[in-house]
Design a protein that fits this description.
With 332 residues, the chain is an alpha/beta fold. It folds into two domains: 99 residues, Aspartate Aminotransferase, domain 1 (Alpha-Beta Complex); 224 residues, Aspartate Aminotransferase, domain 2 (3-Layer(aba) Sandwich). Helices cover 40% and strands 17% of the residues. It is built from twelve helices and 13 strands. The strands form three sheets. It has a seven-stranded mixed sheet with strand order 2-8-7-6-5-3-4, sandwiched between helices. Strands 9-10-13-12 form a four-stranded antiparallel sheet, with helices on one face. Strands 1-11 form a two-stranded parallel sheet. Helix 3 crosses helix 4 and helix 10 packs parallel to helix 12. The model has no long low-confidence stretch (mean pLDDT 97).
Length: 332
């Protein structure tokens, strides 16, 4: 048996409602989807309590990130800021498009150095990426601190709040900044169907942003980037409140379990508001990763983030979490 706890996927797998819908519409894959995905945009609008005209969709959040670069950045004039380490796609797209991306190191506890970020802003700064909760640490900035940061931003600087993991932050009222969306026209709220909704393989992302930016986005986006099965699955899972509420419960309870057990094993554990935990084992990280791999348990080494001494484990089912801890007890 293989237990994969490496990619921050939904521990419950696929919603039964989604599985039924995918089976129902399997014979529709020869058809093109509707270009503007109006039905899904309206369903999201109702779900989020945001006007549909302020919502955009993409083939995963990656497509939206790519098009935001193209929409907002002139490589000859502008630069982009992000923390270090950060989600790799920010750097990939900047390099691909010839955009200068500057990074501000996180603090030693993996919290955001907002003062350092503010000091980096100059007349060339056009776009700032903030992943909240962050990956790979799970650190999250409460919305009151986000408000303080945004109040100090100069005019003309846009902020992408990459909120792929925001649904796992607890309590939601302390972290869910989307409730303030209309007050911040310079903020782009980027979200995904991959995590809470379990649609990672179908590639479906969305964002909430100012109507003018949304209109520009639809003009430059390829017409059929969200496929027909992704759209139908998105519509279905938004109605399956049992599935996404149960996902949230399993993740939050599993996160607490892993946090407690990892600390008891002598690991340095960093507080997480996401569906994963960053930890530093008392043994060499690569050795621990490989020992787990031999037992069929896959977690994430973080060399690509420049964090050789750390590991990241996704929250699994109750059984998977227990098997991971039992295996780790033998190794440590």
């Amino acid at each position: 048996r293989v237990i994969k706890l490496a990619s921050n996927e939904n521990p419950l797998g696929v919603s039964p409602v989604v599985a039924e819908v995918l089976h129902k519409y399997r014979n529709y894959v020869f058809r093109y989807p509707r270009g503007g995905n109006e039905s899904l945009r309206q369903a999201l609008a109702d779900f989020l309590k945001v006007p549909a005209e302020n919502i955009i969709l993409g083939n995963g959040s990656d497509e939206i990130i790519d098009l935001l670069f193209r929409l907002l950045i002139d490589p000859a004039k502008h630069k982009v800021l992000a923390f270090k380490p950060c989600f790799s796609i920010y750097k990939t797209q900047a390099k691909l498009l010839g955009v200068n991306l500057e990074q501000v190191p996180l603090k030693d506890d993996f919290s955001f150095d907002l003062e350092g970020l503010l000091k980096k802003i100059d007349k060339q700064t056009r776009l700032i990426f903030i992943t909240n909760p962050d990956n790979p640490s799970g650190y999250a900035l409460a919305k009151e601190h986000l408000q303080e940061f945004l109040a100090r931003l100069p005019e003309g600087v846009f902020v992408v709040l990459d909120e792929a993991y925001i649904d796992f932050a607890s309590p939601q009222e302390d972290y869910n900044f989307l409730t303030e969306w209309s007050k911040y026209p310079q903020v782009i709220f980027l979200r995904t169907f991959s995590k809470l909704f379990g649609l990672a393989g179908l590639r479906l992302g969305y964002a909430v942003l100012h109507k003018d930016l949304a209109d520009y986005y639809w003009r430059i986006r390829l017409p059929f980037s969200v496929n027909i099965l992704a759209e139908k699955a998105g519509l279905a899972v938004l109605k399956d409140s049992f599935f996404y509420k149960e996902t949230r419960r399993v993740v939050i309870e599993g996160r607490e379990f892993l946090n407690t057990k990892l600390q008891a094993l002598g690991c340095q554990v960093f507080p997480s508001q996401a569906n994963f935990i960053l930890f530093r084992p008392p043994k060499e990280a690569l050795e621990v990763f490989q020992a787990l791999l031999k037992q069929g348990i896959i977690i994430r080494p973080l060399k690509s983030y420049g964090l050789d001494k750390y590991l990241r484990v996704s929250v699994g089912t109750e059984e998977e979490n227990k098997l991971f801890i039992e295996a780790l007890e033998q190794i440590l």
